[in-house]
Design goal:
Blueprint (H helix, E strand, L loop, with lengths): L1 E4 L5 H19 L4 H12 L4 E7 L2 E11 L2 E9 L8 H15 L5 E5 L8 H7 L3 E11 L12 E4 L5 H12 L3 H5 L6 H13 L5 E2 L5 E5 L2 E10 L4 E9 L8 H15 L4 E7 L3 H9 L3 E12 L10
Length: about 325
């Protein structure tokens, strides 16, 4: 077996592995991964994708890639074909990729969420490489039974393109000083949140965006809450982002947004809905479990900053 840079292989070399990966995440996460696999294949053929692949002779046994985004490396999938799992191959591959990403002088920061990972010992490898991490859960809820939307005094309406700026502001304000913001630079500024929203809404960055199930809540001073929803497959909807501005939190708006979005997804015929949450975000976690979401996979968010900078987590 040998390890090679992804820049030396093509999508054809990884086709069987990428096909197996799509089937794996469809079963484990109810996620149609075909669009991501297609994007990975395009990146391989254009020689724009960083990372490494482990080959067993001509066969691709495992791969891990990362993307560069303005001085930040974001580690994506870490996947091994079924016969090669549990042998330390993924962990060794992760060690190599993290070392590569950290050694590139243009990368001041490296981040990863291990949702798309088949490695059983990834967390310890991140810690050994100097990363700070926290547990996250991928939660799923069935949609066979309707969920009543509580009575409320907010004005809810579907998100429109002209609302993207307001949505970015709400998301940024809701994350200021939070654990998630410390581990993910996406939430660091209003412009970065705007880029995140545009990726979800305009470029289907997390499944197919659902404009009817994506809602903005308005109070007396404008937008005070937002929920962004998508379809990860023909049967599974996803709540990509749920945010309420600090001054409106603890007034039931989160429940109203989630219940309203789930009602739209159910009426469209989807059978399940999913979301991800940081376990230490107790308020959100309690809300989602109270609304019937249950854990399907545990993973983690990890971040590393080039010294002398460091990841500062809130107390």
């Amino acid at each position: 077996m040998r390890t090679r840079p992804l820049s030396e292989v093509t999508s054809r070399d990884l086709r069987s592995l990428l096909d197996e990966e799509s089937e794996h995440w469809a079963e484990e996460l109810l996620w149609d991964y075909s669009d991501v696999s297609a994007a990975v294949g395009t990146g391989l053929d254009r020689r724009t994708l960083a990372g490494q692949v482990v080959q067993d002779g001509p066969r691709a046994a495992a791969y891990c890639y990362y993307m560069i985004d303005g001085g930040r490396a974001i580690v994506g999938s870490l996947f091994a074909a079924a016969p090669f799992r549990g042998q330390g191959i993924e962990e060794g591959l992760l060690d190599a990729v993290l070392c590569e990403a950290q050694s590139r002088p243009e990368n001041d920061r490296v981040e990863c969420q291990t949702l798309f990972s088949t490695a059983s010992d990834a967390d310890r490898r991140f810690a050994r490489a100097g990363f700070t991490g926290r547990r996250r859960h991928y939660l799923v809820r069935g949609l066979s039974e309707p969920l009543a939307v509580p009575r409320h005094g907010f004005r809810l309406r579907p998100l429109r393109r002209e609302d993207l700026g307001a949505a970015a502001r709400i998301i940024h304000e809701s994350h200021e000083g939070s654990l998630d913001a410390a581990l993910n630079l996406t939430y660091a500024t209003v412009p970065s949140c705007r880029g995140f929203v545009e990726t979800l809404v305009l470029r289907s960055g997390c499944g197919r965006f659902d404009p009817e199930a994506s809602l903005i809540a308005e109070g007396g001073d404008g937008g005070v809450g937002v929920i962004l929803a998508s379809h990860l497959s023909r049967t599974n909807g996803h709540l990509c982002q749920v945010s309420v501005v600090p001054e409106t939190q603890s007034q039931g708006l989160g429940t109203v947004l989630v219940a309203s979005a789930l009602d739209v997804l159910r009426r469209k015929g989807l059978r399940t809905a999913s979301l991800s949450v940081t376990v230490d975000n107790a308020r959100a976690y309690v809300l989602y479990t109270r609304l019937g979401f249950r854990i399907r996979k545990e993973f983690a968010a990890h971040a590393w900053a080039r010294p002398p900078a460091r990841i500062e987590l809130p107390a």
